[in-house]
Amino acid sequence: MPEWIPDVLGDEFAQLTLELGEDDEGPLVATLVRALPREQPWWDRVSGHRLPLDDVDVLYVHGWSDYFFQKRLARFWTARGARFFALDLRKYGRSLRDGQTPGYITDLAAYDDDIAAALHAMGRDPEGTASTRRLVLLGHSTGGLTLSLWASRHPETVDAVILNSPWLEFQVASARPLIAPVAELQARWAPREVAPQVDLGFYTRAQQEVADPDDPVDVNPIWRPAQTMAVHAGWFHAILSGHAKVSAGLTIDAPVCVLLAARSATPARWSEDLTRADSVLVVDDIARAALKLGPSVTVERIDGALHDVFLSRHEAREEAYRRLGRWVRGWTAAR
Asked: What is the pLDDT, as a whole number, of residue 99?
C-alpha cells in the first residue's frame, strides 16, 4: 500500500503515488502532493476561533508540459486553513516513468481516473461527493480545461472552480472547426505523429526575466522543459475536442473565477513585451470562452501578467494574489 513520503519540494510537502493500471507503455501512476495547514494554537481552539477555509479541500491540476512546484500558491490556501493537494497527472512530472511519452493522452476524460484516485486519497468519494468538506478545483492552462470538463460532468460535487489562464479555446479560434477534422484523421491513423516544434523558449525566458528573489521558485527542467514537450496528433485532437465542448457550453453549477493576463503578445521573436503579457494564449478569446462554463463566472484581467499569473513579475503577481484573495473572501461570505 503506497504511503505518504517527503516530497521533492521539502518543507511541509509530502507525496503519494496513485496506481492507475497500465497502458501500452507500461504501468501508469499519478502523484498527489499534499500540504496541510498548521495546527491552530490551543487558545484559538478553546475560544472557538476558526480559520475561514478550515472545511475546504483544494485540488490543483497543472498545465501542459508542467508539474506542481508553486509553494506559495499552496501556502495561500493552507494559511487560511484549507488542505491543499496538487496532482501530477499520469506521464507528467513526478508521475513520468522511463519509456513513457511525456503528457501523452488521447481523451481528456481518461484523467477521470487520476482525479478519482486523488479524491479517494484525500478522503473523499471518488466522484467528489460524500464529504462534509467543501471542494475547490484549481487548474492552470490545460489543467483548467481538464477540470472544467470534469466539473461539468460531475454536477453537485464541486463548491468552487478557480482557473489560472485556462486553455479553453484554440489560439486561432476561427480556425478550430477547419482544423478539427484533419486532427481527427491524424489521431485515428497516426496518433503518435509529432508536430513541428514551434515553441522558441520565450515563455520560459520571460519567467526567468521577471523572477522575484523574494518569492523564488525552483523548477526541474526535465519535468518542465524550456521548450514544451513534443505535441502528438492524438493529444492535439483530445485538446481540440475539449475546446469544442467548451464552445458548445458547459454546465458547471459552482461559481467560477478565471484569472487572466490583461493582454496577449505573439512570441515570434524575443522582446521585453513578452515579460508583461500572455505569450501562450489569446486571452480575449479565453475570456469570451469562460462565459460558457456555467451561470456564475467572474473574469479577472491582470495587467502585466504572464500566462501563469502567479509566476508574473512582482507587481502583477501580487495583484493576482490580491484578486484571488478577494474572490475567495466573497465566495466564503456567500456560503
From this structure: 96
Query: Would you state the cell numbers that stand for residue 109, as one nine-digit string?
Result: 476524460
**How open is the CA angle 137-294-161, to the nearest 5 degrees?**
10
For residues 312 and 51, what is the distance between their CA atoms, to the nearest angstrom? 28
pLDDT of residue 258: 98
- Return the HEC string of the chain: CCCCEECCCCCCCEEEEEEEEEECCEEEEEEEEEECCCCCCHHHHHHCCCCCCCCEEEEEECCCCCCCCCHHHHHHHHCCCCEEEEEECCCCHHHCCCCCCCCCCCCHHHHHHHHHHHHHHCCCCCCCCCCCCEEEEEEECHHHHHHHHHHHHCCCCCCEEEEECCCCCCCCHHHHHHHHHHHHHHHHHCCCCECCCCCCCHHHHHHHHCCCCCCCCCCCCCCCCCCCCCCEHHHHHHHHHHHHHHHHCCCCCCCEEEEEECCECCCCCCCHHHHCCECCCCHHHHHHHHCCCCCCEEEEEECCCCCCHHHCCHHHHHHHHHHHHHHHHHHHHHC
pLDDT at 48: 60
The pLDDT, as a whole number, for residue 46 is: 58
Closest CA to 203 of 8, 323, 66, 95: 66
What is the per-residue burial (b if ≥16 Cβ within 10 Å, else e) of 121-132?
bbebeeebeeee
Extract the C-alpha cell encoding 329. 473572501
What is the per-residue pLDDT for 92? 98
> Quick one: which of 249, 273, 248, 252 has its CA closest to 261?
273
**143 alpha carbon, distance to own chain's centre:** 4
User: Phi and psi of 134, rounded to 5°?
Assistant: -75, 150
The pTM for the full model equals 0.96
Average confidence (pLDDT) per 10 residues, the chain, 335 residues:
91 97 97 92 64 97 98 98 98 97 98 97 77 94 98 97 98 86 91 92 96 91 96 96 97 98 96 97 98 98 98 98 98 88
